[in-house]
Specification:
Layout lengths: L21 E2 L14 E6 L3 H18 L3 E8 L2 E12 L4 E2 L6 E2 L4 H14 L25 H5 L22 H4 L20 H15 L3 H10 L8 E2 L12 E3 L5 E3 L9 H4 L1 E3 L1 H11 L7 H8 L17 E5 L2 E10 L2 E8 L4 E7 L1 E2 L20 H9 L1
Length: 390
Amino acid sequence: MTRRLVLVSAALAVGTGVLGAVIGARGDAEQKPTGACRDWIAIRAHASEIAAARPLVAKMKRAFGAPGVAVAIAADGKLVWSATCGFADARRRVPVARTTTFRIGSVSKTLTAATAARLAQLGQMELDAEVQRYVPDFPRKQRPITIRQLGGHLAGIRHYQGREALSTKHYGSVRSSLEIFADDPLVVAPGTRFSYSSYGFNLLGAAVEGAKGSPFAAAVTETLLSPLRMTRTRLDDGRPGRGRSRFYEVTSTRKAVPAPRVDLSNRFPSGGFLSTAEDLARFGAGITDVGFMNAATQDLLFTPQKTSSGEATRYGFGFEVGRSPFGRVAGHTGNVVGGTSFIFVHPRTRVVVALTTNIGFVTVANPPSLRHVPDPPQLAIPFIHRALKG
């Protein structure tokens, strides 16, 4: 599973109809075989688009070797489809529900970045300030590092080394987790080159704490999660929670085996959230709502940053960004021990696709090929075309 989001360049599919009644949301789970796919929300007017997306989700599930998967799609700020397939716990045959939470890996970066962007919009954070304004004990480097650079992977902070992605050490706070890399030299001078760094987003999370004056989890909840009604999203602090999936890793033969124990406290802001597909779709709908994120803040998130030499990076502020036949698109993939996820956003139509699974690709020596797997943004094409057609 590659880290970069594949942005669709295919021609638009045909879609017709207008918003209608909800169907499939009240089906009797007892009438279906355990683990069967189930629609929780299906807007009748989007039946043709849903029918086009459904087989793609099934192909992804098979290709990933995932015991369970959940997908949610929003259009113009409203959830139009939510579905689940398979098992949250394969051994106990517990089916995935709409409230099942999954590890979302680096999709966590979008939540951290959106929180910082929202604080900047509210006048509580300065994006071009040096990070030491909010994290005064972080060691100064040979050149200043700004909040904006952290959100665009332009700060020069290193990424994981060795087996750090499999860490079992517990850190009591986001600030304490900075000790992993705080004294290490930068890999490039800030601003000069895009260099992907989960640890850079840990530092951004610490800056969010400093700007908000509260612990990271509370800052994100108050600033982002609560206003957007993302009630199932939280940090994976290791405590068993109601509705949390079991975690699995894929083998080279696409078999799912129990994932090894890891402690995500070394990466809470960059890869440590649990969420649901529906919550992530609500998130995408929220950040494309000018009543919550104004036009300038959306431009911050969805416009490629540039290096000091003027080269565009294809990464905005917490989001991979690109162009398509239907305009600007953005999103992020996540791959962590026990979870693979993605979010895709088309800001113009507010079409959002979110998918979560309980399978990871971190520990397998020879990952199975995903060459013929549908690109995740393909799920959005019929919905976008429908919105553009009006």
